[in-house]
Amino acid sequence: MPDRDLKTGLLTRLHERHSIVCVVGLGYVGLPLAVAVAEAGHKVIGIEIEETRVAAINDGRSPVADVPSEQLERLVADGRLAASTSYSAAARADVVVIAVPTPIDEYRVPDLSAVQQAAAAAARVMKPGSLIIL
């Protein structure tokens, strides 16, 4: 029954918008996703390896064309979205979404090393009952 309790708790937090969602990779896919999740009412923690991008996001300055700085600034000011370079931020997350680059080589084979590294780093700190999405 403990697994069922974890699942029920997660589903309840998601439904009631009391969950913490972590988005790993705050580029042209991850940042718009993080903003959409924050706009839906969840608290979002973004993890990004580029310190200048983290600083810009935490200052409310969008490094991505599809995300207006005004919208980002409001979400940051409201405490709905924050960015970090540390995976320790994922320890509080109910859900971790991995949105890191997967470049392809000349044979159209994706390089999944960033995905594997992100998943391993998140898994080391995630709490039992958390959901990870790729």
Ends distance = 27 Å
- Do you know the CATH architecture? 3-Layer(aba) Sandwich
Shape: globular
Order of strands across the biggest sheet?
3-2-1-4-5
Q: Could you name the ranges where pLDDT drops below 50 across 5 or more consecutive residues?
A: none
The overall pLDDT, averaged over residues, is 93
What's the number of helices?
5
Structural class by secondary-structure content: alpha/beta
CATH C-level name: Alpha Beta
Largest sheet: 5 strands, parallel
Percent helix range = 40-55%
What is the CATH topology descriptor?
Answer: Rossmann fold
* Rg of Cα set: 15 Å
Strand count:
5
CATH superfamily: NAD(P)-binding Rossmann-like Domain
The proportion of strand residues reads 15-25%
Order of helices and strands: HEHEHHEEHE
Number of domains: 1
